[in-house]
Design a protein that fits this description.
It is built from 15 helices and 2 strands. The protein is mostly helical.
Amino acid sequence: MLEIGITAIISFIVAFLAIPVIILIAEKKKLYDVPDERKVHTRAIASLGGIGIFLGVIFSSLLSISLLQNAEFQYFYASALIIFFTGLKDDIIALSATKKFITQIVAAAIIIHLGGIQIESMYGIGGISQLSPAYGIPLTYFTIILIINAYNLIDGIDGLAGSLSLLASLLFATYFYYAGLHAYAAFALGLAGSLIAFLIFNFQPAKIFMGDSGSLLIGMVMSILVLKFITVASSPAAVVPMQSAVGIGIAVLIVPLVDTLRVFAIRMLKGRSPFSPDRNHVHHLLIDRGLSHSSVAFICILANITLLSFAYIFRFMGNSFVLIGLFAFTLITMGILYFSLPKRKMVIHRQYVMSQKRNFNHTSKVIDLKTREEVSAEKLSG
């Protein structure tokens, strides 16, 4: 375990040293994520943290994983390069959703057809077991692209995407280590080390965001890890077999997945593209109710751990039971949080937001969060 653990140390050091340099370069080149009416931050912040995460993951993995013994990783790295540079270009020069979707399909194709990651069974869900390639391959494409976008969309506030990804990567690393798949354990720990370094600079008040270059990359890595976990853990011949591996794997990623599916459904029901931006994500709803970024991140992590515990405790009930319980429990919990917390609207003047776009002001301005009633009271008293 010590040798594999060094992977996390290497990735941490690489990312920790790289990120301050990235922040300085972003400031000089004015490569910022500028606030607008939809975003929750109120000052221009560097959005290239994904570069540090990418460097940490790739550098540590290349040192720790033998491509002679684990040939599939050369294709994982190729996919990572495609996804990373797509996200990086989008961070600097906005890409259309169509172009990003096409590159995700290309990356998924490499993972599936060259990397050998493919869904071949439904593991009893809906009474279905073995899947032919005609069904398994399209389902794998859908799953990979869904997970990539889920982590991209959950990256909306300080510390949230990084914390959820860190939890997942540590869990997968632990399983793969005890299952004897040390290359996958090192891959997961490489991501974990980079994320720890990134979070030091990302927790509120954030000095840098991961950007699409980071969130898309994380989603791609998570798709590989969870699909490999499900395939290995579901096999009776596995060193560490696990009942309801599908349910447990999905539980590890449950918060980003359910939030993305919920938001996509809402958008399509309104006749909009599922990729059109809005403020309906769970972190937006909680922020609009007066919670801090740290509080929202903590709630989401706690919810993820609770749901994972549910999946593990009831794993003997089978995948179908676990999945139905997970999605029902998640939606009910979101509903309770939504309706139980007092609603507070963030009142930010349009003039302030526009001034941020013009001058990229980095001073620490405090934006009061006031209810509509407080604003009305001030107007009356004035």
